[in-house]
Amino acid sequence: MRILVLGGTSFVGRAIAADALHSGAEVTLFNRGRTNLGLFPEARHLLGDRDTGDYTALREGDWDAVVDVSGFRPREVDQAMDALGDRVGRYLFVSSHAVYRRGGLAPHSDESAPLRAPLRDAEELTEATYGRLKVACEQDVTARYGDRATIVRPGKVAGPYDEGRGLTYWVRRAARGGRIALPARPEQPVQVVDSRDLARLVLRLLQDERPGAFHAVGPAEPTTLGGLIATCAEVAGSEIEIVPVPPETAPPPFFPLVRAERLWPGQQRDPALARAAGLPATPLTVTAADVLAWDRGRGEPPLGHGFTPEQEARILAETDGR
Ligand SMILES: NC(=O)c1ccc[n+]([C@@H]2O[C@H](COP(=O)([O-])OP(=O)(O)OC[C@H]3O[C@@H](n4cnc5c(N)ncnc54)[C@H](OP(=O)(O)O)[C@@H]3O)[C@@H](O)[C@H]2O)c1
C-alpha cells in the first residue's frame, strides 16, 4: 500500500508510520520537519505546515490511503482534503474518545454513544474545545469521503515515546518503589491502549477498507488505576504501597490517568468493534516493560507533571498526620 501520514514523527503517528513501514507499505510523511528530524530515512518526506495552510508539497502524487494524525481543527482537515481530493483512496482520521458527551454515559458504551456538539471556529485546544473540534473534523471527513472515511477514536495511548500525562509517570514512579501518593481512588477504572496496538488497528482498517468509527482502547484485561500501578511495580520488580491522598493535592490541570468520578464510564469503552477489526490486546505488563526500558534508555528526564519526589513526600507526611 502507498500510505501518506500527516504527522508521523512524535508518538502516535510514529507508531503508525513504523507499523506501516514494517508491513511493507510505501510510506510518505508530511510535516514541518521539526520533530525528530532524520527519523524513518526509508520513508519519503514532504514538508508543509498545517498552521499556515501550506499543503504545496501535496499537490502531486496519489496514495491508497492518508492517515491524518495531526488534524485537530476542521480548518486543517478541510485544507488537507482540498489539497488531496480523490488522489487518496481512503481518509483515516485519528480522532479521540473526547468526542463523546461528558457525564450521563453508560459504562461500556460503543461507538454509537452520543457525541458532543461540533465546534468549528475555535483555534485554542482546551478541555472545552478539543473534543468538539474533533467532532467537527470527523463530520467533515465523513461528509467528504463517505464509505472511504474511517475514524479511529483512541482512549489514552501509552507506549515508548509517550511524553504526555499518562502511563509514563506511573511506570517511572512504581519502579522507584516505596509509598506512592495517589490523588484518586485506587478502584478508578482506567483504559490505556498500547500505541503499537493502535497502529496495527489503523493498518488493518486500511488493508480491509473498513469505513466507520472504531474505538482504540485497551489494555488486554480491564484494570483499575490501583491495578495499573501494581502491574507497573511488578514489571519493575519493586515493592510499593499505594496511599490514597486528597484529590485537591494534585497539581493542575490534571494528574496522569486520574479522572473525576463522573468521568469513570468513559474509562470503560467497549473495544469489541475494533477487536473484531484486528485491534491486538497487548498485556499491560508488556506495555509497561517497554515504557520502562525506553524511559531509562533516555535517562528519565523531568516529566513536568505529576508529583515531584519532594511534593509527594510532603503530601504523604501531611496525610499520615491527619
Ligand atoms: N496521546 C493520546 O493519549 C491520544 C489520545 C487520543 C487521541 N490522540 C490523538 O493522536 C494524535 C497525536 O498524536 P502524536 O502527536 O503523537 O502524533 P505524531 O504524528 O507522532 O506527531 C505529531 C506530528 O505532527 C507534525 N506536526 C505538528 N504540527 C504540524 C504542523 N503545523 N503542520 C504539519 N505537521 C505538523 C509533527 O511534525 P513537525 O513538528 O516536524 O511538524 C509530528 O510529525 C492527535 O490526533 C490526538 O488527538 C492521542
Describe the structure.
The protein has 322 residues and is α/β, with parallel strands linked by helices. It folds into two domains: 2-154, Rossmann fold (3-Layer(aba) Sandwich), CATH 3.40.50; 167-191 and 220-263 and 283-321, UDP-galactose 4-epimerase, domain 1 (Alpha-Beta Complex), CATH 3.90.25.10. Helix content is 33%, strand content 18%. It has nine helices and 13 strands. The chain has helices at residues 12-22, 74-84, 130-145, 167-176, 195-207, 225-236, 272-277, 284-297, 309-321, and strands at residues 2-6, 26-31, 44-47, 63-68, 88-94, 149-154, 156-158, 178-182, 189-190, 192-194, 212-216, 223-224, 240-244. A seven-stranded parallel sheet has the order 3-2-1-4-5-6-11, with helices on both faces. A two-stranded parallel sheet has the order 7-10. A two-stranded parallel sheet has the order 8-13. Strand 1, helix 1 (12-22) and strand 2 form a beta-alpha-beta unit. It starts with a strand and ends with a helix. The relative contact order is 0.14. The structure holds NADP nicotinamide-adenine-dinucleotide phosphate. Residues 7-14, 31-35, 48-51, 69-70, 94, 96, 154, 156-157, 164, 166 line the site of NADP nicotinamide-adenine-dinucleotide phosphate (NAP).
